[in-house]
Amino acid sequence: MTEEAKESISTKRGLRRNEIVPFTLEFLRGRWFALFASFLIMASSGSVYLFGTYSNEIKTTLGYDQTTINLLGFSKDVGANVGILTGLIAETTPTWFVLLLGAALNFGGYFMIWLAVTGKIAKPMVWQMCVYMAIGANSQNFANTVGVVTAVKNFPESRGSLIGLLKGYAGLSGAIITQVYLAVYGNDSKSLIFLIACLPTALSLIFIYTIRTMGPVKHPNEHRVFNQFLLLSIVLALLLMVKTLIERKITFSKGTNAVITTVLCLLLFASLYISIREALVVWNIKKQPPTAITIEQSKSQVVESSEETSTKPTSSEQVDEKIEKSCFLTVFDKPERGMDYTILQALTSIDMLILLVTTIFGLGASLTAVDNLGQIGESLGYDNRTVTTFVSIISIWNFFGRVFSGFVSEILMVKYKLPRPLMMTMVLLFSCIGFLLIAFPFPGALYIASVIIGITFGAQLPLIFAIISELFGLKYYATLFNCAQIASPLGSYIFKVKVTGAIYDTEALKDVAAKGLVAKQLTCIGSHCYRLSFIILASVSCFGALCSLILVMRTRKFYQSDIYQKFRENADTL
């Protein structure tokens, strides 16, 4: 039976009354509801993006100076990016435990911060606040690991599109939580901390037994379904962008924010309708009587499986083989690309080394540009409202970069057999244009640069995560993609502190000396402030593109093959 015929049959009939309860139970245990749950969890995992919103409340109520606030911000970054332990826990424990542990860390960290800010406990020591912040921020790694890893294993043939969608929702999560907070509490930063402690925790507990690895199932027009999810996410992003830009001109009332939040929730839950519809497609196809073709296919599959079983070694032989070869002995005995690597095999492979170097240079440069955008706008003479608009623009285009990099790279790979690292190369080269626009600005250049940097910054992580899953397999994917995530803050520290920050201070001191003043606070005004820094960042990004191009050359034969074939063969047949 063809895929078109299956879909035609499945959409012509609904549910009988006696089928409602069995279908509901199967849906709640199925992969489509798990995907919907992953969307919601990722959409609420943006606590790290909101530090700038509530950090002033911490500074005021606890009497901290800016240095201490920066230390808290550093603790947040460390907690958010050190996820290797999360990956190892995910490899060895069930999904519900990972979600439960993430929920406990989120609530424990942010609830203690809320208690401190509201004066319900004695003023904590600075190191204690740093620990609370790191614990709360680290919880997002648990949500990301569960959401991304289970979704990729359940929908391996759409992994690029899926990772883009999930990371896109994560990118919008800060704006989503902010909108819910404005509708419920108004403008109360202390309540925002309480909401961050409760909302992600509640969602993780609600879906604790829902999100799990179930394996792939053959489905008619799966890619079309993900295009519909993409359309919903784009509408959601546009709503948030329009609301953010209008808010620069007028102030919304609490009632207006409540209406906007209601529309936002309807858009989020529209994906539930799509999930129910697709689960119904699967349900109806399963109920169809087998045709002669499917019976003959089943017979041939049985014969093939029996032949494979007869040629497989016995269990005792397999045990002996496992005893003979430990992970340390096989570290340099690499399997073919696309097979399941061990963690040590992957981390010591040349492909992973090239990918990590690309991440350090490419993503590190982009993250540096994003973090300095406020000061760049100030140095070029823009007012505070315009600078805030730049930041809003870059966050929205960050979302578009995430979702489109996943979908476009998937099309290029499946339809034209182009290696996914080639998309990474093009993204890094495109980012150089944004860096050079800042180095050599003209009127309106910063608007264009913020769009380019936002898109290219968002595009990189989904591509990196997808490439890792394709080259090194899915068995230890939870640990491997968390290892790659560490490269980002490492690159950011090098280029932000040692390069951009040092050059900015040098230029500011030159300005002070030229005016014959004494430096009280280093502030640099003019296009020269970031010129050398961003020429260096453009060069660094070009080097990252060159590294990515080397990976393209190394993997082109692999991507010219049908890398999803084994997943189609192992998928459950409808």
From TrEMBL:
Pfam families: NFD4_C (PF23262), Nodulin-like (PF06813)
Major subcellular site: membrane
Domain Nodulin-like: 31-276
SUPFAM superfamilies documented for this protein: MFS general substrate transporter
TM region(s), chain numbering: 32-52, 96-117, 162-185, 191-209, 229-246, 258-276, 343-367, 387-409, 421-440, 446-469, 532-552
Membrane topology: Multi-pass membrane protein
Identification of the protein by name: Nodulin-like domain-containing protein
The species this protein was found in: Gossypium davidsonii (Davidson's cotton)
